[in-house]
Each structure stands twice: as C-alpha cells, then as structure tokens.
Design goal:
The structure holds 2 protein chains of 2 kinds.
Chain A (H helix, E strand, L loop, with lengths): L5 H52 L2 H4 L3 E2 L4 E2 L2 H32 L2 H15 L3 H28 L14 H25 L3 H9 L4 H12 L1 H17 L2 H6 L17 H8 L6 H35 L2
Antiparallel strand pairs in A: 1-2
Helix pairs in contact in A: 1-12, 3-6, 3-9, 4-6, 6-9, 7-8, 9-12, 11-12
Chain B lengths: L1 H23 L1 E7 L4 H14 L3 E6 L3 H10 L4 E4 L5 H6 L4 E15 L9 E2 L1 H9 L8 H6 L9 E5 L4 H13 L1 H6 L12 E3 L1 H11 L3 E6 H6 L6 E3 L5 E2 L3 H12 L22 E9 L5 H22 L9 H10 L5
Parallel strand pairs in B: 1-2, 1-3, 5-9, 6-7, 6-8
Antiparallel strand pairs in B: 3-11, 4-8, 4-11, 9-10
The chains are: A mainly alpha, B alpha/beta.
C-alpha cells in the first residue's frame, strides 16, 4: 500500500469498522429481542391453552385438592405443594453439602485433589436425569425403605413428618434424589465464585492475624455470596422443573399429606405422565394450566433471587 | 475444488434419487396406542417388503393422542386400545371405522416374598384391593382362594401415566364391581383410591420388584417378554384362568356371537369357561372416506394382508390372534372404507 494513500485508507477502515459495529449491534439486538419475544410467546400460548380450565375453575383451580380426570374435576394444590416441598427438601440437603464441598475444593484441598474432584463433580452435573431416576429406584428406594426411613421413624417418629406407612417412595426420597442432582451445580458454581475472590483479600486477612478458617468464613465467603446465592437458585430451578427422576420415586399420588414418607406428586411429573393420554380438552387444558403455574413459580422465585441479590449488594461492598 | 464440485454433483444426484423414490412410494402415517406397537412395527416393515411402494409410519404416542391427531387431520389413521366414545366420534370431521387387529390381556402381578404358587384373584378380591377395602394379604376374601397368605399390608401400585392398560383393567373392575364403577369408573386415567403410581409398564414392574407385598397390573405381552410371574383371575363362568394367547382368544370367541357391526365392544369378563376375563381388542381407526385414491388403495390392501398374513405373526410376539369368526366378519367390513 502506498504511503500517500495512507490517510484516506485509514478513514475508510475507520468507517468500515464503524459499520461493522453498527451491524453487530443490530444483529445482537435482534437476538436479544428474540429472547423477549419467545418469553412473551410462551406466556401467550400457555394462557391461550389453559384458559378453558382457568375460566371453568377460576381461583378454585389453585385451592382445590381434587384431581379427577374421569369426572373432569381439576385442582392444582397437591402438585404445587409437592413441587415446593420436594424442592425445599432438596435445598435443605444440597445447600450445606454443596457450599461446604465448594469451600473445601476452593480453599482447603490440595490443588491436585481439587482438580480431580471438580472434574468428577462436573461429570455428575452432566448425567441425564433418567439415569438418576433408575439409580434411585434400584438403590435409593430400598435404602430409604429399609434403613433411613425406619431410623427416622424410630427416633423422630413423634413429629407428624415421620409418621405413617413406609413405602420407600415419597416426598423424602424425591427430595434426596433432587438434592443429589442439584448439588453438583451448587458446588461447581460456588467454587468458581470462591476462586474469583482476589488473593489479596485472603493475604490481608491472614496478615492481620486471622486463622485460615476466619479468613475463609469472614472474608472470602461474604465476597463470594452473590455467586453462591446464584448457584443455589440455579439448583432450585433444576429441582422445580425436574421430571423423570422425580416421577420415578415420588409415588405419583395427588394428595397432600403431612408425612414425608407418603407418596406425592409434582407439577412436572403429572404433565409428563398424563399429557399423552389426556382424556379430553378440559384435562389437556388443566395440564397446560399447571405448566403455566410452574412457569409463574419459577418467575417468582427468580424475581425473589434478584431482589435478594440486590438487597445484599447494597448492604455490603 | 474438483473434489468439492464432484461432491456437490453427487449430493444432487442423491437428492434427485430420493425425490424419485418418494414420488413412487406411498407414504402413510398413523399414530396411537403403544400396546400394539411391537406387532404394528413388524407388520409395517413386513408389509413394505412385499408391497415395496407402501411405507407406513407409525408413532406410538398413546391412544388418546392418536385420536386427537386423527381429529386434527395430521395422520392418515389412528390406533386405540379402547373403543372411541360417541362423543369422540362426533368430534371427528370424517367418521372413523374401528378395525380390531389383535388381542391382549392384562394380568395381575405381585411381590410376595417367601410364597410359592400362583395367587388366585377373584373379581371381588381385585376390586377390593384396588379400592382399598382389602388392605391385608390375609383378608378372608383372598384367603378363601389362597390359603396361607401372610399377615402383611398390601401395597397397591398402579400406572401414573394415562394408559390403555389402565383402561382395560378399570373396565374389567367396573364390570364386576358396582362400587368401582361409581367411584372410579373405566378410563385411561383414574383417580385412584389407594396406592403408589409408577410411570409406564417398566416403572410399574420396577416398583413391584422393589416393594415387598405389592400388587399391580401389566399387559400380558409385557409380563411374558420380561418373564414376570402373574396370578390367575376368576372368569364369569367361575373358573380361575391364567392369561395366555389361548385364553385371551377364547374371550373373543365368547364375545363374537354378540359382536356389534362397528366392533366397539369390550370383551372384559366375557362369557365362556376358558375365557380370560381381562382381555381386550386393540383397534385401528381408519377414516370411512379417504380422498386420496392411492392412500385408500394401500390402506385397504394392508387391512386384507393384516387379516391373512399379519395374524400369523401375532402369537410369536405374545399377542392373541383374532379368532377365525371375527376375521371373517372384519374382512367383509373393509368394504365400508370409501
């Protein structure tokens, strides 16, 4: 290229770069708009297909416990309860376990062990859920029926949660399998969040005379809390929507019982079970209405997560 | 570059070949019942071997889904384990005809540790167990036919997904027990008074194997293919009959005398001393008028073939073939497809 033409070619390049920027902006804008459009379409379609059931039953749909396809009576409450209950149990088990393991992997474990364990955890996160379901039927269910649940009943049997007949399948077993499925997510993202805390923070704490645990608990953990909360909500989202593994171990009985040993049902499970052979339009519509409820549930929970993150960020650094 | 061009040329040739064969062959799609899927897929592939130009694609989505797809016009024919109701037929733009293809039975399975010999279930016992009124294995009603059953709670397991199997089983219970009929009825999805739900025949057998003192029901073909032991059931004539191809066929022969011309009939609790009481036909749902002449010709040809050559393949897969009297009747009915 001749040196005399240099300045003109420079502006031309400038211009084409600007045009490239403009094009990239437009293309990504279309993609981003697509996400919004898809969300709106999902809401519109769910609303449209569930309107038959929602008009017929109104608010009663959310408070009724009766789900009887034969007499066209549909109530969502047992499924909402089952979904929330199993997800709550899953988090109750998975959060301490997952965050604890993440702290060990990020802060305490020798690098070699940490990298091997991290690899294994990420492998666990990739296992398809139907495999977890099969494992649950053949190993977890008998273990819960013969060992865990009788032990709980004999020690804590005075509580209503641990009474009644033991089947091996039910809320508690579903909660345990969900915990096993969610905790790889919690570990792997929490660990990343912990590792992202600057090394200087730890060194400063140690220099001021903190023990390693004090540095971890008072300095690193608060700094990483956003990532940890994020990981928990990601795990919760998986637990709420999980279908195959849950339906294989929850017992699929649409009723609300105090006992955690009793069979229950979740929204995702009933949709998977009944959609293909739905007996009529109202049944189909009630199932779509349930998926609408699940959609709203995840929206509300994600919104709550956002609010929680905003609240804690303002308080802290 | 040469390579690229030749590759492109080859792919064009290939595309042309594919369109050419597609234009020659007749594609027919159907959807519906999962229970006859093994025999249907064999029939369609065998039929293609002898009638090269006809490719029948079948999706086993479930009887209900098959009926809905037929209504929506997305498939050429449907298939169902239960006869369509008048209401369902009324919704269809073109009236569908029912063609029985093969028969199957539903058998009671159970997990009784330490007991040998088959359990005999009277109709009263089965209804009581699934209603929850019989909750122990040593209930007098069960003990009467099976001395020595243990003093243990019965764990009822049932299908949680809507299923033709559940329809056949509940249809039988509704016929023999007025209480079942009024409380639960006959349907692919039941509001079960007791028990644990499991998804699919695999889920049900898995849970029964895992749960001592449990009881459930699966299709005969599923039980035989997976070598699961099952109990015998008392039929209308008062005999305890174990389900097999012969006893299921006997149920159809028993019902053949009063066969309605549209074949919408339940053969649950059929008469005849050798009839297995929880038996059923499974039907192809063919529109009564088919506009596309080639499709009509191919489907009619298939129906004739199914009644002649197709029936011979049924037994090997665990399905009961149609009795000759029914075959003769159905063969005449094919002319109704216009």
């Amino acid at each position: 290229m001749a040196s005399s033409a240099k300045s003109t070619s420079f502006t031309a390049v400038r211009k084409s770069v600007q045009m490239g920027d403009e094009a990239a902006r437009l293309v990504t804008l279309v993609f981003a708009g697509g996400i919004l459009l898809i969300t709106l379409l999902v809401v519109a379609v769910l609303w449209d297909h569930s309107s038959l059931a929602l008009y017929k039953f109104g608010f009663h749909f959310f408070t009724s416990q009766n789900w009887d396809p034969n007499s066209d009576e549909f109530g969502a409450l047992p499924f909402v309860y089952g979904t929330l209950m199993t997800s709550f149990l899953a988090l109750l088990i998975a959060v301490p376990l997952g965050v604890g393991a993440a702290i060990f992997l990020a802060e305490l474990a020798p690098p070699k062990i940490s990298s091997i364990l991290t690899f294994l955890v990420e492998l666990l996160a990739a296992v398809p859920s139907v495999i977890y379901g099969l494992l649950a039927i053949f190993t977890l269910v008998p273990f819960m029926r013969d060992t865990v649940e009788p032990a709980l009943q004999s020690t804590l049997g005075f509580l209503p949660f641990f009474q009644g007949q033991i089947f091996g399948v039910g809320y508690l077993t579903a909660g345990v399998i969900l915990a096993i499925m969610t905790f790889p997510f919690i570990i792997s993202i929490s660990r990343e969040a912990l590792l992202a805390v600057p090394r200087e923070q730890r060194e400063a704490a140690l220099a001021l005379g903190a023990t390693q645990w004090e540095s971890t608990f008072d300095i690193v953990l608060p700094n990483a809390r956003l990532g940890i909360i994020g990981s928990i909500f990601l795990g919760l989202a998986r637990a709420l929507g999980e279908t195959m593994a849950v339906t294989m171990v929850i017992g699929n009985d649409p009723s609300i019982k105090a006992s955690l040993f009793a069979p229950g049902y979740t929204i995702a499970a009933v949709i998977a079970n009944e959609f293909a052979e739905a007996s009529g339009n109202l049944h189909l519509s009630a199932l779509v209405a349930l998926s609408f409820v699940l959609f709203l549930l995840t929206m509300v929970i994600n919104g709550a997560a956002r609010l929680m993150i905003m609240a804690t960020s303002r308080k802290g650094a | 570059m040469m390579k690229l061009i030749s590759l492109r040329f080859a792919s064009m040739c290939f595309a042309a070949m594919v369109t050419a064969t597609l234009a020659l062959s007749q594609n027919i799609t159907g959807a519906g019942a999962t229970f006859p899927y093994p025999i249907y897929s064999q029939w369609f592939s065998e039929f293609k071997k002898t009638h090269g130009s006809v490719q029948i694609n079948y999706q086993s989505l479930g009887s209900g889904a098959g009926i809905r797809q037929l209504e929506a016009g997305t498939v050429d024919f449907g298939a169902s384990d239960k006869p369509m109701t008048d209401e369902e037929i009324g919704k269809q733009k073109v009236k569908p005809l029912h063609f029985p293809t093969v028969m199957g039975g539903v058998v009671p399975i159970y997990n009784l540790p330490g007991s040998s010999g088959d359990v005999k279930f009277s109709a009263q016992a089965l209804a009581g167990i699934f209603l929850g009124t019989i909750s122990k294995w040593n209930d007098p009603i069960l003990l009467k036919d099976n001395p020595g059953l243990p003093d243990k709670n019965i764990v009822v397991v049932h299908r949680s997904d809507g299923s033709g199997t559940t329809f056949v089983f509940s249809d039988f219970l509704a016929k023999v027990s007025p209480e079942w009929k009024s409380k639960c009825g006959a349907s692919a999805s039941i509001k079960w008074p007791v028990g644990l739900g499991a998804k699919g025949s695999e889920g049900v057998t898995g849970l029964v194997k895992q749960t001592p003192f449990s009881v459930s029901y699966v299709e005969l073909i599923f039980a035989t293919q997976n070598k699961i032991g099952y109990g015998s059931v008392k039929n209308a004539a008062g005999n305890f009959i174990k389900a097999d191809i012969n006893s299921v066929s006997a149920a159809a022969s028993g019902a053949a005398k009063n066969m309605p011309t549209d074949y919408r009939v339940s053969i649950a609790n059929a008469a005849g001393k050798d009839s297995y009481p929880i038996s059923t036909f499974t039907w192809l749902l063919i529109p009564s008028t088919i506009a596309d002449g080639n499709k009509k010709k191919a489907l009619i040809e298939f129906l004739h073939w199914m009644l002649k050559d197709g029936q011979k393949m049924a037994g090997a897969l665990g399905y009961a073939p149609l009795p000759p009297s029914v075959v003769a009747m159905v063969d005449k009915s094919i002319a109704q497809v216009q």
